[in-house]
Amino acid sequence: MPGKIEARLKELGIVLPTPSVPQANYVPWVVSKGLVFIAGQIPMQDGKPQFVGKVGREVSIEQGQQAARLCALNILAHLKNACGGDLDKVVRCAKVGAFVNCVPEFSDQPKVVNGASDLLVSVLGDAGRHARFAVGAPGLPFGVAVEIDAVFEIK
Amino acid sequence: MPGRVEQRLAERGIILPPAMKAMANYVPYTVTGAHVWVAGQGPFLDGKLHHNGRLGEDLTIDQGKACARIVGLNVLAQVKAACGGDLDRVVRCVKLGGFVNATPDFTKHHEVINGCSELMIEVFGERGKHARFAVGAPILPMGTSVEIDGVFEIEA
Q1: Integer CA distances (angstroms), B46 to A65, B13, B73, in order
Q2: Which chain B residues are within 8 Å of A30, Cβ to Cβ?
Q3: Which of A9, B3, B53, B71 has a CA-to-CA distance to B122 between 20 and 30 Å?
Q4: What digits encode the pLDDT tens for the residues B14-70?
């Protein structure tokens, strides 16, 4: 019998991406005392970085939101692994840290990051509501538009 | 009898700098239950900052990595202080947050922060494997090229 969150993903037509493998000497997530710390995720699809460019220049706000949404899908993919395959173990999303690769004049980072926050709430419901920061960065690895990390509480 | 981690440091010729005091109205680390939260550290060694500058402009990736390693030493110095001097109390490095002072065209922040990630594995082995982020910043305090904060799990 599929879990509650799996059923929700199905309702929303969401297929989680295959979790990426870190490019260096670190791990994609760590479980410590009931908390899962997920490493910063970039918008990866099929092993390739998507949405390369700067918001406010090559990347529009809508594209930035899609990039943020893709980061959140990657976060959920890793979270599922951290939960041994069972997303019903998630108690709540505690915190999200979001960086938007943007031009210095751009100040709508929160709108961009809503692409991720909205996805987490639509999948996890109230358990998806989190504290967050949404800031600009002058550059990000591989030149992607958004990088997001997260902390979850699990059973 | 020196602790396990101290022995490892000695084997590798790693000497930790003294734990830096905070530069403003905050503390260099906090302990909440089993977690140590280390404030963002800079590349202090022998009383001065090393490798100031900007990646993609006047610093090479190797210099950035060397800087990240020195920042890592400062992170470890704070963790040691938080553990009452005993690094054997570290259960694991949980997470690092890495900021690289870089030009907008620079895209290899992850390679720079590897200088710190590799140090954690060198010192703690498997228990050094951590989650992290590596991002660019347009400028960092005092013109440093790298700033890194960290979360560690320790024994009571």
Answers
A1: 45, 16, 12
A2: 92, 94-95, 129-131
A3: B53
A4: 999 999 988 888 899 999 999 999 999 999 999 899 999 999 999 999 999 999 999
CATH superfamily, domain at B4-154: RutC-like (3.30.1330.40)
Query: CA–CA separation, B42 vs B145, rounded Å?
Result: 9
What tens digit of pLDDT does each residue of A104-130 get?
999 999 999 999 999 999 999 999 999
Domain ranges, ordered by start, for chain B: 4-154
Contacts of A24 in chain B (CB under 8 A): 110-111, 113-114, 117
Mutation target vs A (from B35, B69, B95; most A CBs, 10 A cutoff): B95
Chain B environment of A40 (Cβ under 8 Å): 132-135
Enumerate the β-bridge partners of residue B99. B135, B147
Contact A144, A43 (CB under 8 A): yes
What residue ranges define each of the domains in chain A, with the CATH number in brackets? 1-13+31-123 (3.30.1330.40)
- This prediction has a pTM of 0.92
Rg (CA), chain A: 15
